Amino acid sequence: MSKFKKNKKKDAPGITTASLPDIVFMLLCFFMVVTKMRDADVKVRVRIPQATELQKLEKKSMVSHIFIGPPSPVYQAQFGSAPKIQLNDAFATPDDIMQFVNVERSAINPERHNEMTCAMKIDGEVKMGLITDVKTELRKANFRRVSYLANKRSN
């Protein structure tokens, strides 16, 4: 008769964890797809100027970045406070731009060379002489599509 006692408390069933590996795998895949790895570590301080007429860059995979500005405080003891050019992860001179362009072009299909764009991210306080030197070297390398990055000016 002890089998049929009505006063017996029932224990709640345990929480099943069978679907937990599936959920973890879906989250891992989601973050792998959504996360963008940084291409270059910016070693110069860039305060982007503001502009009114802006266009969004298309085909961001075909964009090469050149950063121009004073070195960040970590590098000022080594390189000084004068504006520097950064190509990929290293400081450079205008003479190094030809080699930079050739390396960037060699990484893509030759038919798509005309689609490449150089995005210049320049600090607002940099003198125009350094920018002109960079543009001259880009012309010598036959790199004609140049854009300047800017923030939208709020009225």
Automatic annotation (TrEMBL):
Domain of life: Bacteria
A GO molecular-function annotation: transmembrane transporter activity
Keywords, ordered alphabetically: Cell membrane, Membrane, Protein transport, Transmembrane, Transmembrane helix, Transport
Membrane topology per record: Single-pass membrane protein; Single-pass type II membrane protein
Pfam family, one: ExbD
Keyword Membrane set for record: yes
GO biological process: protein transport
Entry's localization field: Cell membrane
GO (cellular component) term, any one: plasma membrane
Residue spans crossing the bilayer: 12-34
UniProt family annotation: Belongs to the ExbD/TolR family.
Record protein name field: Biopolymer transport protein ExbD/TolR
